[in-house]
Design brief:
Layout: E1 4-6, E2 9-17, E3 27-32, H1 35-46, E4 50-55, E5 72-84, E6 88-106, E7 111-117, H2 126-145, H3 151-159, H4 163-174, H5 178-186, H6 190-242, H7 245-259, H8 264-279, H9 285-299, H10 312-322, H11 327-347, E8 356-360, H12 367-378, E9 382-386, H13 394-397, H14 410-418, E10 424-428, H15 441-448, E11 457-458, E12 465-466, E13 472-477, H16 485-489, E14 492-495, H17 501-519, E15 527-529, H18 531-541, H19 548-567, E16 573-575, H20 577-584, E17 602-609, E18 612-624, E19 629-632, H21 637-652, H22 663-666, E20 667-672, H23 686-698, E21 706-708, E22 711-712, E23 718-719, H24 724-734, E24 738-742, H25 754-757, E25 761-765, H26 768-775
Parallel strand pairs: 2-4, 8-13, 8-14, 9-10, 10-13, 15-16, 17-21, 19-20, 21-24, 24-25
Antiparallel strand pairs: 1-2, 2-7, 3-6, 4-5, 5-6, 6-7, 11-12, 17-18, 18-20, 22-23
Length: 781
């Protein structure tokens, strides 16, 4: 039984309400399901059936504390209790008075508290009467704009005279937010309560007005869209009836444009162009031009990317399966994949600009084919564009749309072909581009191969920014000499050297022989070639930096073997040295081996050619004459200047090397480099010419087991040269054991195979004196 502790204080059970609020004089029902609420209801029913109803601040809290409850609630009389299926109880209550918790007495099994009833004073003043009228007016305005107020509520408000009951009635039936209802319930003073209610009603009325404006605007827009749609459908039906297919195409293009994630500029221009097409008369030639342009936009791979395969082990396996050696190229690809993987691990995306690489090396070493292998290893689409002989800028950037038959450039066409925004794009033979009155394609490539600019590449035909920054660009070249410096500066140069004899042997055994056998329809391993015979084939029938000629020669051997097998009814052929000669004829290339005895005026040099390294004999002879210097052997300008520099050095140091001081007046000197049909150039034969001149003029024999390379200056300094690996391999093949090279080239020995270096006695020279001490013997008697 509730007991009255003192005036206006009762001890009552407490029920927490979620998303619901009860005002005094208000009758409503709600469901009770939480254990504490059920226990409080049972305790109230055992007493005088009164309970305190408090609203929760957050309806999502399942087990609220006192801090989670609103401070002011309503003491209510329980009128009816109905048990529902599913352990829920429906309760009908009538609110009586505002109340607040004074002291919480217990929390289990239900809340029970000393509750203070709040006395309300209703002043009878003109202000009170004015507030009641204003509240009725605000309610009338709100009801006029809202369709949610029932007729019953309107009648109830009209019949209520008391200000306190009016405020509670309007708040309970009109206000939808729990916060607004609680604000009215919290006000004990009736004047403040009516003012709070009027403020809320004014706000809600303004929101209703804004809501109506928004609804009206949206309705007009929807009506206009429906009208446009209806008219378009009518036009489409009429055009289909007339057989006009162009209008249907425009709608299809619009649908494609809506579904394609193009950038904002492309979308705006394409929509404008489609609007132009829709207004053109059927049969207008301009329609075809405009439609083709829009189709090009839609055919580009906007937003489509392939996922890179970042498995380093798989990438190494793929690269090694298809190509032997080429370690620098493989390392660079593995580095790129490793960085992508680390970046993906760091930020979750791994997106980064594609590298711009240039593979430089002689023909036939596999530059183009390894790019295909890289695309396979990384998992990207492959696009190839050959730049050999390209001299028109429009090949790169496209033609402007003002020209009849204009089309995009090869870059945009390649992106369309790839179907993704991040393919591997190969520019083959970039050193073979030329220029004329139609423009310079090399200059057009500057934007494409610049990582700071190509995120917004603009083709002349498209005139839209297109992102090329995620493309992996790789170019190939035989030499960097013909590539313009600004273009060269944008690329990372990776040199692809010529193959050694040992590398060619490995490639022939592992790749070329099996490939040729398969291509010619023979059984696997039906043509057998031993290592010694394969070496004879490589050295005697090919002379190249790569393996193209070697591949052709092996194919010829396989064809001859096929004939042999059919004629003699054999299943396989063992190619011996004798059979090799029968199949291919006499040996085509003979390597001149150096002389065994020291010779006057004959010195071995080392040269780097497009087919690899070669030994280069330099002959010098001295004759009575008038001091002329004659140079033969199809020498280039740089090599001729090296000979003149060598001559000047010898003249300046004649006494030091035991040479007659007036030789340049009384003697004619002839320097010849054999194999005159082969052009020769470069400064690296400078020390060789000095040695030959000193040997011939001082009559001191030059050792023939020594080969040298290095540029000479007028003061006798030996300057560094290039092609060290290829030159040492040439000496290795020729059987020369002693090498003289510039001191500054010592670092380049890292690239030379270890088994080759072991067979050399290498001397590093800083001046001509260092060279002459090694190469020249004592003067002959």
């Amino acid at each position: 039984m509730p007991r009255k502790k003192k005036e206006e204080m009762l001890c009552l059970p407490v029920i927490a309400l979620r998303g619901l609020m009860v005002f005094p004089h208000m009758v409503l029902h709600f469901d009770v399901g939480r254990p504490k609420s059920v226990a409080a209801l049972e305790e109230a029913m055992m007493g005088d059936q009164r309970v305190l109803l408090l609203a929760q601040k957050d309806g999502d809290v399942e087990d609220p504390t006192l801090e989670d409850m609103c401070s002011v609630g309503t003491m209510a009389q329980i009128k009816q209790v109905l048990n529902l299926p599913g352990d829920s109880i429906r309760v009908l209550v009538e609110g009586e008075k505002r109340a607040r918790i004074h002291t919480l007495l217990q929390e289990e099994p239900c809340w029970r508290a000393d509750v203070m009833l709040m006395q309300e004073v209703l002043p009878e003043t003109p202000e009170m009467e004015g507030l009641v009228r204003f509240a009725r007016e605000m309610f009338a305005q709100y009801a006029a704009g809202s369709a949610r107020i029932s007729q019953e509520t309107l009648r109830s408000v009209r019949d209520v005279e008391r200000g306190d009951q009016l405020a509670d009635l309007i708040a309970s039936n009109v206000l939808t937010k729990v916060e607004d209802r609680q604000a009215v319930l919290d006000e004990i003073d009736v004047v403040s309560r009516l003012e709070t209610l009027c403020r809320i009603l004014m706000r809600e009325t303004e929101l209703l007005s804004i809501e109506k404006q928004v609804q009206s605007r949206l309705k007009k827009q929807i009506d206009r869209n429906q009208k446009d749609y209806y008219l378009r459908e009518q036009i489409k039906a009429i055009q289909e009836e007339l057989g006009d297919k162009e209008a249907t195409d425009v709608e299809e293009l619009r649908e494609r444009l809506r579904a394609t994630p193009v950038n904002d500029e492309a979308r705006e221009k394409a929509e404008k162009e489609l609007e132009r097409i829709s207004r053109m008369a059927p049969g207008t030639p301009e329609i075809g031009v405009s439609r083709t342009w829009v189709e090009w936009i839609l055919d580009l791979p906007w937003g489509k990317y392939t996922t890179d395969n970042l498995d380093l082990k798989r990438a190494r396996r793929v690269l090694n399966e298809e190509h032997y050696a080429m370690e620098k190229v493989k390392e660079r690809v593995i580095e790129y994949l490793a960085v992508r993987r680390m970046k993906e691990r760091a930020d979750g995306e791994g997106a980064m600009k594609g590298p711009i690489l240039c593979f430089v090396g002689p023909p036939g070493v596999g530059k183009t084919s390894i790019v295909r292998a890289i695309a396979k290893a990384v998992g990207r689409k492959f696009v190839q564009m050959s730049l050999g002989g390209v001299r028109d800028e429009a090949e790169i950037r496209g033609h402007r749309r003002t020209y009849v038959g204009a089309i995009p450039g090869r870059i945009i066409a390649g992106m369309k072909q790839a179907g993704t925004m991040n393919p591997l794009f190969l520019f083959d033979e970039i050193d073979k581009m030329s220029s004329d009155f139609r423009g310079d394609p090399a200059s057009a490539m500057l934007e494409v191969l610049d990582g700071e600019q190509n995120f917004a590449f603009r083709d002349h035909y498209m005139e839209l920014p297109f992102d090329l920054s995620r493309v992996m660009f790789i170019t190939t070249a035989n030499t960097v000499d013909t590539i313009p410096a600004p273009l060269l500066d944008r690329m990372e140069i990776i040199e692809v050297p010529s193959y050694t004899e040992e590398e060619k042997l490995h490639i022939a055994k592992k790749h070329l022989l099996g490939k040729a056998v398969k291509e010619h329809g023979l059984a696997d391993k039906s043509v057998k070639i031993t290592d010694s015979v394969m070496k004879q084939l490589i050295e005697g029938y090919t002379r190249e930096a790569g393996v193209r000629q070697l591949s052709r020669v092996i194919a010829r051997v396989v064809r001859k073997s096929a004939v042999d097998m059919l004629d003699n009814e054999k299943d396989s052929v063992q190619v011996t040295a004798q059979k090799l000669k029968e199949y291919l004829g006499a040996v085509r290339y003979l390597r001149e081996m150096p002389e065994k005895k020291s010779q006057i005026g004959l010195v071995n040099g080392l040269a780097y050619t497009t087919v690899g390294g070669e030994t280069l004999a330099v002959e010098c002879t001295v004759m009575p004459g008038s001091g002329q210097l004659k140079l033969t052997g199809q020498l280039g300008d740089v090599m001729k200047e090296s000979a003149q520099a060598a001559m000047s050095f010898v003249r300046a140091h004649a006494d030091e090397y035991g040479i007659e001081g007036e030789f340049y007046k009384q003697k004619d000197i002839h320097i010849h480099v054999p194999e005159g049909a082969v052009p020769k150039d470069g400064p690296s034969a400078g020390v060789t010419m000095v040695s030959a001149l000193v040997s011939a003029l001082s009559l001191r024999p030059a050792r023939q087991d020594v080969a040298m390379t290095g540029e000479i200056t007028l003061r006798g300094r030996v300057l560094p040269i290039g092609g060290v690996k290829e030159k040492l391999l040439a000496a290795y093949r020729a059987g020369i054991k002693t090498i003289i090279m510039p001191r500054e080239n010592e670092k380049d020995l890292e690239d030379v195979p270890a088994h080759v270096l072991k067979g050399f006695d290498i001397h590093f020279a800083e001046n001509a004196g260092d060279v002459l001490k090694i190469v020249l013997d004592e003067k002959m008697a």
